[in-house]
């Protein structure tokens, strides 16, 4: 997850109490009757310093005893949930069933880890990514990404519930009062565009008057990881940083691209964004910090 | 749990397909939003051969990673749930929320373990043991037994919901068609009397015409483990096998007591039961088997 790597680079550079992370919830899913919020958890575990870094999800050093035992009852356990990670889902599910909002539960979880930043789900209302894959029908996002490993030709990407989802409490206020906004190097379809499509979000960003920096998730015209290339081509877009930048037109004031994609700078400038050419591959914490420093500098922080 | 030890002794002696185990559910409890059925699980794990034997609950060799992590969210984790054990509670809770009955879930769990006996909860309706303890108010059973370690003077024991609880499907039929019935050496208040108080159970036992053997859970006038002595004295009874036998009057035809309690034989005979004097301490699997063999022999099996 590029956003998590970027966040890890950003953290040493700023006062955490000044940071609000607004998180996509469209890949939330129910497994074994438990509400799993993969992006919220990745952000939380990253900010808590307990995230597993290589595979990009879950908790470092976690074990999978419960999951193994769940296999006995459910047959399939393709979505990997570690023993410690499970505690988060058990707690969240319990709290949601008691009527607490996802926002409140997210805050309780982050406080339990002593996190000083504010982590907000984009919405307390359910919005779910549905991917239509040629020959496989319409799939839930985790089914598509994890179970089928993102294979197949994407025919369409839909956000079920996006039309009626309200921003979570605090989201619009955080955006409006922000000094700077960062769209990290993530898959636009399944992490940034859902947030930008929540009613009031674009207006709040505009109202803030804050500079907005986006970072391309593509390097040399390809995603570092994940199915973004198939999602772009499947929905009729070029597989290019300029195509990603197109999604943020009217939102981002600067757009960071990798040196390998320097040729796209003119197309990005044509979208009304200042192109910034830099090494975007965060292959080490130092490199992530360097990228984050450049982004902060671009934003005047 | 005396019943589990006895069951382990009984298993090698009979065709498991002939055995139905009817299990108390009054110590069921919700922890972390998960439905935990301690007695059903102990029976299931015992019959599956995976039960932890020394401490008397949970799964052999289980780890407690998830529970540790739950502590971060919930603060207290006095009820110990192992990682593998948790899978049972996650599955059961998920299935119950989908509208399946406890009977059905119990069958699914036992089938997942390849168990050939039939395990039935006494009822699909909630019945809960409430213990009033001097100076501590009315406590849920696990709160009393596990959190407070059974300390304090018992003032009363109540079964909330017993008046309206229906027998689980299959319970009355299994009793009616049984060739023999065994009341294992358990705490009568919190395992056998709840079952006997379910509407229709005593009548079904009588209708079966089967011999009924009960085994005293007291040895030398004291429980092997647990708070039965305090429960007996707190509810105005002697702490004696004869007092326990009194609860089964009109139900049991034979009553097994330990050699140390041989003096009680006459009182037991006066209750209309044949007293059988034997070593009842199951300090090894061989001793449990020996006791079970004596019980089967008394029952003509």
What's the shape of chain A? Answer: globular
CATH topology name of the largest domain in chain A: Rossmann fold
Give the end-to-end Cα distance of chain A, rounded to a whole number of Å: 24 Å
Helix and strand string of chain A, N-terminal first? HEEEHHHHEEEHEHEHHEEEHHEHEH
Number of helices of chain A: 13
The largest beta-sheet of chain A arranges its strands as: 8-9-12-13
**What count of domains describes the coordinates of chain A?**
3
Q: Which range does the strand content of chain A fall in?
A: 15-25%
Structure, described:
The structure is a homodimer of 301-residue chains. By secondary structure, chain A is an alpha/beta fold. Chain A folds into three domains: 1-13 and 169-301, Rossmann fold (3-Layer(aba) Sandwich), CATH 3.40.50.10680; 25-121, Helicase, Ruva Protein, domain 3 (Orthogonal Bundle), CATH 1.10.8; 128-160, no CATH class. Helices cover 40% and strands 17% of the residues of chain A. Chain A has helices spanning 2-10, 38-48, 65-74, 83-97, 102-112, 141-147, 171-176, 188-197, 201-208, 228-234, 241-247, 265-270, 285-298; strands at 20-23, 29-31, 34-36, 118-121, 128-133, 137-140, 154-160, 181-183, 212-215, 218-219, 222-223, 254-258, 274-278. Chain A has a four-stranded parallel sheet. In chain A, helix 1 (2-10) packs across helix 13. The longest helix of chain A is centred in the N-terminal third of the chain and has 15 residues, at 83-97. The radius of gyration of chain A is 19 Å and the shape is globular. The A-B interface holds A 32-34, 62-63, 65-70, 72-74, 82-88, 90-91, 93-94, 97-98, 108-109, 112-113 and B 32-34, 62-63, 65-70, 72-74, 82-88, 90-91, 93-94, 97-98, 108-109, 112-113.
């Amino acid at each position: 997850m590029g956003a998590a790597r970027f966040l890890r680079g950003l953290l040493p550079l700023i006062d955490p109490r000044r940071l609000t992370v607004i998180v996509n919830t469209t890949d939330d899913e129910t497994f074994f009757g438990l509400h799993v919020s993969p992006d919220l958890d990745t952000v939380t575990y990253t900010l808590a310093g307990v995230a597993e870094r290589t595979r990009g999800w879950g908790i470092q050093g976690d074990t999978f005893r419960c999951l193994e035992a769940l296999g006995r009852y459910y047959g399939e356990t393709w979505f990997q949930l570690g023993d410690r990670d499970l505690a988060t889902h058990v707690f969240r599910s319990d709290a949601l069933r008691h009527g607490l909002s996802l926002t409140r539960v997210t805050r309780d979880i982050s406080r339990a880890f002593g996190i000083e930043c504010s982590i907000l789900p984009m919405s307390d209302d359910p919005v779910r990514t549905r991917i239509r894959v040629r020959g496989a029908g319409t799939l839930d996002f985790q089914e598509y990404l994890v179970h089928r490993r993102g294979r197949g030709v994407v025919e369409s990407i839909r956000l079920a519930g996006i039309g009626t989802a309200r921003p979570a409490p605090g989201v619009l206020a955080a955006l409006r009062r922000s000094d700077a906004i960062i769209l990290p190097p993530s898959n636009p379809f399944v992490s940034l565009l859902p947030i930008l499509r929540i009613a009031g979000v674009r207006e709040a960003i505009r109202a803030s008057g804050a500079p907005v920096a986006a970072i391309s998730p593509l390097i040399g015209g390809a995603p570092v990881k994940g199915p973004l290339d198939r999602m772009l081509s499947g929905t009729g877009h070029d597989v290019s940083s300029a195509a990603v930048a197109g999604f943020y037109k009217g939102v981002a004031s600067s757009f960071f691209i990798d040196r390998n994609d320097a040729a796209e700078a003119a197309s990005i400038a044509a979208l009304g964004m200042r192109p910034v050419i830099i090494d975007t591959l965060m292959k080490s914490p130092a490199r992530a910090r360097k990228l984050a420093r450049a982004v902060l500098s671009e934003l005047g922080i």
